[in-house]
Every structure is written in C-alpha cells, then in structure tokens.
Amino acid sequence: MIMRGDVAVIGVGMTKFDEHWNKQLRDLFVEAALEALDDARVSLKDVKAMFVGNMGSGMWVEQEHLGSLLADYLGISGVPSLKVESACASSGMAFRLGLMSVTAGLHDVVLVGGVEKMSDVTTSESTHHLATAADREWEAFYGMTFPGLFALIARRHMKQYGTTREQLAKVAVKNHKHGSYNPKAQYQRAISIEDVLNSPLVADPLRLLDSSPISDGAAAVIIARSDIARRFTDTPVYVLGSGAATDAIALHDRDDITTLRSVVLAAKEAYNMAKVEPEDVNLAEVHDCFTIAEILAYEDLGFARKGEGGKLIDEGVTELGGKIPVNPSGGLKAKGHPVGATGVAQVVEVTLQLRNEAGKRQVSNAEIGLTHNIGGSGASCIVHILGRGRR
Amino acid sequence: MIMRGDVAVIGVGMTKFDEHWNKQLRDLFVEAALEALDDARVSLKDVKAMFVGNMGSGMWVEQEHLGSLLADYLGISGVPSLKVESACASSGMAFRLGLMSVTAGLHDVVLVGGVEKMSDVTTSESTHHLATAADREWEAFYGMTFPGLFALIARRHMKQYGTTREQLAKVAVKNHKHGSYNPKAQYQRAISIEDVLNSPLVADPLRLLDSSPISDGAAAVIIARSDIARRFTDTPVYVLGSGAATDAIALHDRDDITTLRSVVLAAKEAYNMAKVEPEDVNLAEVHDCFTIAEILAYEDLGFARKGEGGKLIDEGVTELGGKIPVNPSGGLKAKGHPVGATGVAQVVEVTLQLRNEAGKRQVSNAEIGLTHNIGGSGASCIVHILGRGRR
After folding, report:
1. Mutate to test the interface with A, among B69, B149, B252 (most CBs of A within 10 A)
2. ipTM of model over 0.95
3. For A384, phi and psi rounded to 5 degrees?
4. Architecture of domain A134-212+239-387
5. CB–CB of A64 and B104 under 8 A?
6. Is B58 within 8 Å of A63 when comparing Cβ atoms?
7. What is the number of other CB atoms lying within 10 angstroms of the CB of residue B195?
8. What is the DSSP string of B327-343?
9. Per-residue confidence of chain A (391 residues) as pLDDT tens digits?
10. From B88, B107, B176, B289, active-site residue
11. Which of B67, B100, B136 is facing A101, going by the closest CB pair?
C-alpha cells in the first residue's frame, strides 16, 4: 500500500518497433533512453540507477550483462544497473523494481527500460527462444510453442463460453486500426475481418493475423519520487498501483486454462493499492500477444464478466471512442512485440495518453490508465495503474 | 541509508556445488530453497515473494521464465517471482532486490535464491555462454574469453605492482585448504603451490588451478523484516549495508584495469550504509573467479593498499586464523562457481559464520562479514555487509 502515488513517471521514450536491420540492441536501447531523458529534462548525471527488462539477449544476440553494457553505452557507467527477466513480462517487472528502489529510499531518479532484438535470427530460432518461457520438460521439449498454447486456450474459451472466431478477428482489426494512428507502430495499416479469417493458419484456430509479430525495439521511462517530480516536468504521471503474480508454468497444471490466475492476482493487488475499481479505468494497454489473450484480459482484469470478453469487442466498448479503449497504441498485434520492451512501452503509451499527447489516437478525458503485461502463457503477470493526478 | 539493519537473514540453504548429472536446474533450486525454509522454520505459505539470480539458463538449459517455473516447482505459485541477471553477480543482485522489496514495505518474508546448471553442455559451449558477460562487439566476437581478460589484468598487476606468480598460487592453495573443511565444496582437497604452478596453462599467466571450475548448484536464503525475524529464528543475521555499481564493460574502456571501479563504488556505498570500515570486517567471501580477482578484491575493498594485495596473502592475513579470513568456504575456486548461485552462496556462508555454525572452517569471534560478488570482468559488483547484531 505504501507505494501509491509516491513515484511519478517524468519522461518517456521509445524507438519505432520494427525490423531494425541496421541497428544493434544497444543502439535501440540508447535511442529510447535518450528520448526519455530529453522528455524528462533529466541529465545523465541525475540518473541514479537503471533497471532493464529483457527476455533473451543471450540467446538472440549472444550478449548478457545488459545492465552494465547498456549503462556503459548510455554514458552512466558506475550506477547500479541490472537486467530482469520474466519472459514477455520482463520490462513490466523492471518497472516494478524501479518503483521499489525509489520507494525503498535508495534512489530518487531512476531509468527503467526494456529492449529486445529478435530479427537477427531465423523465425524458427526465435520461436525456439520464445518457447524457453514455457515449461521445457513438459511443453517445449515436446514441440509445443506459444501459438499452440494460446490455441488451446482459445479453443477451450470458444467451447466453454461460445466465443467466436469473428470476435477474435475483431481484436486484431481494432488494434490494427489503432496502430494506423501510431507513428511508432510496426504495422500502420488497417485490416479487415476477412483479412484475418483468410490469413494462414498458424495453430488452429489462431491465424497469422491473430498473432503479434517478431520485432526489434526499445522503450524507456524516467521515474522519480513524486515530491521532486515537478522539478523536472510540468506533466508528471503518478503510479497509483502495482501488482505482480505468478501461476503454474505449464497449462496442464492449471485448474482452468480460460482464466489466467496471475492476472487476477496481480490486478487485485494493483487495484487495492490504487484504490480504484475496473470501472474507474479510462484506458488500458493489455498484452494481446494473440487475439485470445486480449479477450482473457478483459475478463481477468474485470472489464467484463468471465466468458463475456467476446461481447465487449462486439459492442465496441474497447475501441477508441468506446467506454474503455484498449490498446490505443495498436497493442502488441500492430505496434509490435519486441518481448523485453513491451511492458515499458505500455507505460510509455499510458503516460502519453494521460498527458493528452497521444495525437490521433488520444483517448478523451483520460484520468486513469492500466497496463497489463504477461509472461509466457500467463505464468507471470504485472499490472500497473497510473493516474493523471496523485489522488 | 534507510536499509541498515532493517532486514534479517533468517534461514539459509544450499546444494553441494558439483557436477550434478542426475539433477535438473529446478531440482537443485528446490533442494536449496527447502533447506533454507527448514532452517528458517518458515512454511511455504509465509513466503510472499521470490527473487532468483541466474545468468544464462536460456543458453545452458533452454529454460527462461525461472521466476515462475521455480515458484511453481517449489510450491508457492501465485507469489510474485522473477529472475535477475548481472552475469556472475546475478544472485548478489537478487539479494539486493529482496532487501529492497522488504524495505519498500511490499513484503515481510522473501525467498532469495540463485542457481546455475552448467555441466549439461560442453566446456567450449560453457565458455561461449560465459563470454556473453563481456562486450560481444569488442571482446567476445574476437575470441576473447574470461580467462584471457583476467590474464590481461594479472599481467598488468604483476608489471605495475610486482605481484608474483607464487602469490597468485597462494590464493588457490588457501582456498583449497578452506574448501577441504567444507562438505558442500566441489573440491575438498588441499593443493600445493607446486600443483598450481605445474597445472596446465590456460591464459598466460593463469593456469588451470588459478581458475574456478564449471559447476552446478543452487543456494537460497530467507529474509524478513528485522522486527519480526525472531518469530522464526533465534539467530537472525542482520543486513547492515548493500552497495551495487557498474563499470565500463570492455577492459579497454577503463582508465586502469588493475582497479575494478565497480567494486570501489559498491564497497563505499555498503560501508557507508553499514557505518563500518574495512578494518571492522571479521571475514569476507570474495569473488575469486581467478586468483588475481581475489588479490584485486583485497585492494578494492580496502583490506590492503593498492598494489599490496600480494603481500596480504604472503603474510597469511586472509587465511583461517589470520586477521581477516577470506573465503573460509573455499571460495569460487574450491567451493565451485555455478555462476548464478554464487552471490547467494556467499551470503549463506557469511550467515553460517556469524551464527557460529561453520564447523571446521569457523572464523572465531565473527561479528561482521562481507560478501563481494562481481559480474564479468568487473562491469558489475554487489557488496553486502552482514552483522551478528543489528547495531
């Protein structure tokens, strides 16, 4: 409870998410970090610690020790800096660690970033590296990959609750529409329901256009003690709540694969800390690695009752202009999903929205925003609630 | 400063460090964690968060998402749990994060562990994976490995300060002697100076017996808010200071390769927080990945003046029975070095020493102990100071 409103986001930055053939992991990180520093009007010497989210740089680009490497290349070598890994929730977790370090009184101004460089290897190698987020002994070893795991979840959700193939497609259509307004999105073009339904089958019922892409990119935010935030910026955004939880890593060890218990637990912690209810949330950036994951998020975050996520997309509630716009950035689907960067990129988007600086994709009257970042098939989840006011 | 004495170590556990052909990474971690829980008289349901140090499980055993996986296999799935990486300083950093989470008021009782399973691949693959802790673009890509990097440091130290080949050997001899008293050490046999000098050359001037081995193993500690520690144990050990810092990752970017600036900075932070001086330290577990690294540690931690580390080993100051016994556990050299487990294993040893439970290797009248855990060639360093009393 003690964290509520104590820490503010004072600056944000991110690279375009894309296939960056001419940039290295370190280049992408430094680009995002410098943009965030510039945005916060913070100089390098003010940064007292750094937390970097990254899933698998050792596997993808043969480089670990990112905490030190990236502090060095950014020009702040000396400060404590580390890498945190929680699969695709790595930088959501890094953000939480940054908050902890400020709340614990260790540091006043901290840089939190996330980065992944995935396109330097073949798609099958990337699929292998991503599958290390599943249970090696019981899932990955037998050839199970993430499209397969989410396909199982989708099939079960369809059977149990009557969720339709078209409803899944509508998630992708919505997020691509939103992405078309975001100059930093990997895909800035609208698609139709037919496009999704006619795209190649990946793991039945999920198709190519149900799936987030393989991406390169980085995102960064500067956080500070709230009581000094206005020394740097006129538009601090406050962190009201933080929640993190885990679940059984293998799908077969869960009681019900249509509910991600880690999300339910993390959301509860975050809502309690922030003293807000799901209906108070004005916008959310959720982890739509596959379209079904956004439907689950609606339900597990309390935006819809269990089983009624599909209805929410049918009714347009989560579109820009709806009651709770979800993924105004384009989400993982259209904005791109450099896995280690995704959690912080969500914080970047919510911050821009709460500062009323989101351009064509601006959610009107946004006071409270939520981020939802999951690892693997939901074995970890981090939820953050940010507010325009400190409350 | 606010952390000093606020957090206590209430239980410790570790596997034997060894080549564990019949155990998986997850088995090793659970074994160490259960021993720590048992030692702390803490039940699984009391553990509110977990921090795991690990350098490269994705590369070595194709398994990431260790935070979730290990919480699941330990039986505490649900609680927030993550993996932190800072090369060979990964679990020293995990310990610091655990302290932060308690100090920030997020959790009362936390499990911090470290684990690495290195022996399932060839030695050359392990050497490759370890080299991801160096600068890929400027060091590893050109074939530079860690024996080579530390050999450069050793050569320069010998030239600049007259440190001798025999002094380096004496570090290994001392640590093997200490290791012979430690039932959990990988090597429990004494060696002679001649053994070291006649062992195969690895990277001139460093020989096989100057080098820590490739190991499998895990270590775990339970930490709690100091004011509730005695609910669980009669022998809490208090964390008095914590320091972390980074340095340029590539050796060629440092002003002086005979001083690890990360160590100097981290030690300063830890000493200041603990309000102790180097001469107050009764024992230390330092990061002797190669013999030269222990000589540097003497100097950079303030046990000896710069250049006089060799004299300290000549004078027997750092042997059991000397003024500041260093690596009573056997150190990385003899105890073994499963890289992600090393930092927490150092805390395990210092805790046992301060509880007067270290058996044949007990340091008499130990009141204050220090741990020194470095990543790569010193691009990151974490120092902790623990005390028998809260002070």
Report:
1. B69
2. yes
3. -125, 145
4. 3-Layer(aba) Sandwich (3.40)
5. no
6. no
7. 17
8. -TT-HHHHH---GGGHH
9. 467 889 999 999 999 999 999 999 999 999 999 999 999 999 999 999 999 999 999 999 999 999 999 999 999 999 999 999 999 999 999 999 999 999 999 999 999 999 999 999 999 999 999 999 999 999 999 999 999 999 999 999 999 999 999 999 999 999 999 999 999 999 999 999 999 999 999 999 999 999 999 999 999 999 999 999 999 999 999 999 999 999 999 999 999 999 999 999 999 999 999 999 999 999 999 999 999 999 999 999 999 999 999 999 999 999 999 999 999 999 999 999 999 999 999 999 999 999 999 999 999 999 999 999 999 999 999 999 999 988 7
10. B88
11. B100
Query: Which sequence spans correspond to the domains of chain B?
Result: 7-122+214-237, 129-212+240-387
Residues B361-384: b if buried by 16+ CB within 10 A, e if exposed: bbbeebbbbbbbbbbbbbbbbbbb
What global pTM score does this model have? 0.98
CA B75 to chain centre: 27
**Does A372 qualify as catalytic in the annotation?**
no
With contacts defined as CB-CB under 8 Å, which chain B residues touch A79? Answer: 245-246
A72/B379 Cβ within 8 A = yes
**Which phi and psi (to 5°) does residue A211 adopt?**
-110, 140
B129-212+240-387 fold: Peroxisomal Thiolase; Chain A, domain 1 (3.40.47)
Interface probe for B, chosen from A23, A27, A68 (most Cβ of B below 10 Å), is A68
B140 interaction partners in chain A (CB closer than 8 Å) = 62
The reply to whether residue B136 touches residue A62, judged by beta carbons under 8 angstroms, is yes
Contact yes or no for A96/A244 (Cβ under 8 A) = yes
> Closest partner residue to B106 among A57, A82, A100, by Cβ?
A100
- Annotated active-site residue A107? The verdict is no
Hey, do A7-122+214-237 and A134-212+239-387 end up sharing a CATH topology, with the first three levels equal?
Answer: yes
Q: What is the dihedral of CA B263, A55, A262, B29, to 10 degrees?
A: -60
Active-site residue among B20, B176, B178, B337? B337
CATH architecture of B7-122+214-237: 3-Layer(aba) Sandwich (3.40)
State both tokens at B379.
């691009």
